[in-house]
Predict the 3D structure of the following.
Amino acid sequence: METSPKLFNPTALTQYLEDHHHMQYEKDLLNEILQSIQNNDTRKLAWFAQFGETLRLIVFNVNAYRKGLQFGFTDIRFDPYGWLKRPTFLDQQELHFGLTEQDRYGSYSTITIGRGLNHIWTYGLSVSYGTAGSSSGICVYGQVFSSKEETLKQALQKLRAMMVEKVGNIDTTNYNQKIILATLKSIADMEVSQVQLSLF
């Protein structure tokens, strides 16, 4: 893909920076592009240009690509809409926490752990308090860990802290205490089993 004169016009890029509310990483990337324009670094501009046909696409795709590098993912491939394809984490394992299978009714929390090509690990966390909850799948934006054990340990601590915060909440529709307490018990059971495994 050739660099677009309009796309990498310094006046237009400066205007784009000023006209939008950007997160810090977006500002940094846009300023990096602007610096490349000012330095007439055509090689670097061509590298940026391969990530999309608009500044928005380029910024999001470059950020995703660089995050992926932390896990050893180097492929540059795009979906039909121009977004960088999400890499697949290896050795993924999904763990369930909460009520027993008979009582779940779909209300349980999960931790998904996996590793990149370079054996760097991360996790995704789906939290259910009953009706309320949150979910963030495993992805390149997650925390970085050097081992599976450390990843699971940190994920369990995060899930426990989120559950403990809702213990005793008077909104029992959104924060079902039975589910919360069952999840805390599941976490404790998992931690005991991890300790036992480490002894052998």
Observations:
- The beta strands are 90-98, 108-115, 121-128, 133-136.
